[in-house]
Write a structure and sequence with these properties.
Pfam families: FAD_binding_3. By secondary structure, the protein is an alpha/beta fold. 32% of the residues lie in helices and 26% in strands.
Length: 412
């Protein structure tokens, strides 16, 4: 069974590894970029994604790349704590939460793909033109290349060419008016050194967490005029001075926000965009995965994790269904409703809703958070998001594995 994966990002590479683990061997990954480089800044891999990476035999390799936060804490823009909860192993999961540099993580996945599937399985410099009758056509420097496959998986991101083929009138991603600035800084740790913090509200926010010894990932966010267009790019470098100025008075007893922002090696600007959920990801022998299927706002730190879950779920159903159409139907039934709910939840701020409520109810701060938001309401918001995203501790710890043990006739 010949399988083509379009895109060598986190979703595409994890799909290749998942399919290989499930017994498939005729796999090729086609990437638009001429070369893969460790771009980006920090991301979080939640315990449900780390479970899947561990079952792929990557747990220790990924752990060595970054840090494992033990706490997530939300604050208002005055530095007062709204909510705090344990994370990863500290929260009772069997797997940690990991904070890693996105580019380093992608390069590690690429290295493992080449080790297990072959040095030439990832083919760069191939831009998808279209798919017709089971044949993918790619533009290359040497001319157009056609590749026939039994299954074509579009893991080609928020600007997916495969998605655009079947949604030609969709238009550019939808901007919600917020601009993000991201970077990494070499700086001392804050609080206990293992805490991920989010401070602010729906209009302005700051996020920081360690991604390695002495390395802090920083994210600044502000509503207002900014860059938004069809070519949104995580790697647009901007002058940090205006961003630092936006947070000039955000100095807390436990963290100096402008100082940390000013220490960043570079600042990358990106509009907060997503797309409306669509009714189907599958057309014939093609389907979508990751940001090509369900681009979402980064509230809840879930984008990469959901792509990993997509990859593992798709491989599981391809290995256990009797036909490719049945496998794709099962994959969509498992993943599309869940990710649709997350896209819509993230538009409502996801778990970060606690910061929005604190700002609405006590814009000048509070004596105690429970005077503003009852503890039951705080708990409901946090628990509800974990349930929607599929990582309630008990549910995740007890869920059956996505590593297939019984194989079907789909395999050659």
């Amino acid at each position: 069974m010949a399988i083509v994966i379009v895109g060598a990002g986190i979703g595409g590479l994890t799909t290749a590894l998942s399919l290989h683990r499930a017994g498939f061997r005729d796999i090729a990954v086609y990437e638009r970029a001429d070369a893969l480089r460790p771009l980006g800044v920090g991301i979080n891999l939640l315990p449900h994604a780390v479970r899947e990476l561990t079952e792929l035999g990557l747990g220790e390799r990924v752990e060595r790349l970054g840090a494992a936060p033990g706490t997530l804490a939300y604050y208002n823009r005055h530095g007062q704590q709204i909510w705090s909860e344990p994370r990863g192993l500290d929260a009772g999961y069997r797997w940690p939460q990991l904070s890693v540099h996105r580019g380093r993580f992608q390069m590690e996945l690429l290295a493992v793909v080449r080790e297990r599937l072959g040095a030439d399985v990832v083919r760069t410099g191939h831009r998808l033109v279209g798919v017709h009758d089971g044949v993918a056509r790619f533009a290359t420097a040497a001319g157009e290349v056609s590749v026939a496959a039994d299954l074509i998986v579009g893991a080609d991101g928020i600007h997916s060419a495969l998605r655009r083929q079947h949604q030609p009138d969709e238009g550019p991603p939808i901007w919600n008016g917020l601009t993000l600035w991201r970077g990494t800084a070499r700086a001392p740790g804050f609080l206990d050194g293992r805490t991920m913090i989010m401070a602010g509200d729906a209009e302005q926010k700051f996020v920081a967490y360690p991604i390695g010894p002495g390395v802090i990932n920083v994210v600044a966010e502000r509503r207002g005029p900014g860059f938004a267009g069809p070519n949104a790019d995580w790697n647009r470098t901007v002058d940090p001075a205006p961003v630092v100025a936006l947070f000039a008075d955000w100095r807390f007893p436990w963290l100096d926000v402008p100082e940390l922002l000013a220490a960043a090696d570079e600042i990358l600007e990106y509009p907060m965009v997503d797309r409306d959920p669509i009714d189907t990801w599958t057309h014939g022998n093609t389907t979508l995965l990751g940001d090509a299927a369900h681009p979402m706002y980064p509230n809840g730190s879930n984008g990469a994790s959901q792509a990993i879950l997509d990859a593992r779920t798709l491989a599981f159903h391809l290995a256990t269904a009797t036909t490719v159409p049945a496998a794709l139907d099962a994959y969509e039934a498992d993943r599309r409703p869940a990710t649709t709910a997350l896209v819509l939840s993230n538009r409502r701020q996801g778990p970060e809703q606690v910061m929005v409520l604190a700002r609405e109810r006590a814009p000048d701060g509070f004596a105690h958070i429970h005077d503003v938001i009852p503890p039951e309401e705080l708990t409901e918001i946090a628990t509800g998001y974990k349930k929607a995203a599929g990582f309630l501790p008990a549910d995740l710890n007890e869920r059956a594995s996505l590593t297939p043990t019984v194989f079907s006739g789909v395999l050659p």
